[in-house]
Each structure stands twice: as C-alpha cells, then as structure tokens.
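This part of the workshop introduces the protein records we will be handling. An example says more than a description, so a record of this kind follows.
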Amino acid sequence: MISDNLQRIRKELPSGVKLVAVSKFHPLPALIEAYLEGQRVFGENRPQEFAAKAVQLSQDIEWHFIGHLQTNKLKLVLPYAYMVESVDSVRLLDAIDNWGVLHSKTIRVLLELHLGAEETKHGLSEDEIREILSAAVTPLPDGGQRYRNIRFCGLMGMATNTDDESVVRADFQRISSLMESLSAEFGVDSSPVLSDFRELSIGMSHDWRIAVEYGATIVRIGTDIFGNRQY
C-alpha cells in the first residue's frame, strides 16, 4: 500500500517540489517500505522518536524536523536534522544557533509563520520574521553576523484546519505573498546570507494540491502515504 501511495503522489507532484514523507507515529517497517520505494526525505515531529529512527535507518535519509521543538530537546534533533522546518520563536532560533556554534555545525532552518486561525498553533508573526531577517543581514560591529551557524532556507506554515477551501487558499496566499515580499525586501537573489531563502513548505495530505498552486516547494504528506497513525 505504501509503495502504491508513493507512486501515485509522485505522478501528481510537479517537478521541483520536494516530498517529505511524514512518518510520525508509524513503525520502522513502514518507513523501510517507503525507503525501498525510493523515498529519502522523512519528517518527524517528536524529538525522541526522531532521534530513535534516525540512528536505526540508513544514513542517506534527509531528516526534517517539523514539530514544535523545545530548547532542551535540541541534542535529540540537531545532530541528525537536515532541516528544522519549525522555528517558531526567536528564543528557539538563538538556541539553535548557539548549539551550532558549540558543535561546529550549520543548521538549515525554515521560519514558521503563524498561519492558521487556531490560537494553539505555534509560529512567528510577519513582523517577527522581518526582524529576524533584518538582524541576519545586518553586520555586527565586528563585521560578523548574528546567526553565524544558521542557514535561512525559507518559510513554513500550516493552513487553518477546516473544510472551507476558501480559508485554506487565503492562508496559502498570505504566506506565498509574504515569501515574495521578503525576497524583494531583503534582496534574496543578491544576499550571501539569504542566498538559500527559497523554500516554501506548505501543504499536507488534505491540502497539498492547493499548496502547489501557491508556490509550495516542499509538501509534508503523512496519511496519504502511510495511512492512519499506528500509535
């Protein structure tokens, strides 16, 4: 089933859009089946589960952390993460940067915009994202930069959990417009610090086709690949 699901999604997915197979709550055999079908990018949202799977599976897997990350859990995630998609506060960003300095590693991140209507969702405001990027591109007095061990790669967001497609489209339009605005405002095409700021991670199993219409470069699909959660 997993192999069939992956083949079907890949046929629909436009070239250039990366598929993150969201494997949270699914056992290793399910991930192995996806791996044998050629899937190499997986997403997890719980630090302990992330670390446990990362050390047991092939080293050529590209691991994305996609959940809320507490600063005291960095040691479980950052040694294995190709990308942290869910940077939702300045405090977390600073902690990731400090960890990177201590461990001589540069961490790829996406800044998570608080996109949906739910108050329980994590994320940064548009103003906070602008302030972060402004700090990133502004040289320090010694000529260095604030986030020495961070590679800013773009934005991430989750649309409102609703069956109203117009609401979902409005959410995706908002983050897509912000991406365009930031690219122009900070001169992404000519900025060494923001040269990788090109990824837009939006869209999950129920709305990824809509997300693609709004410029998604990464989609995070779980249920449509693995079925309902196992535990």
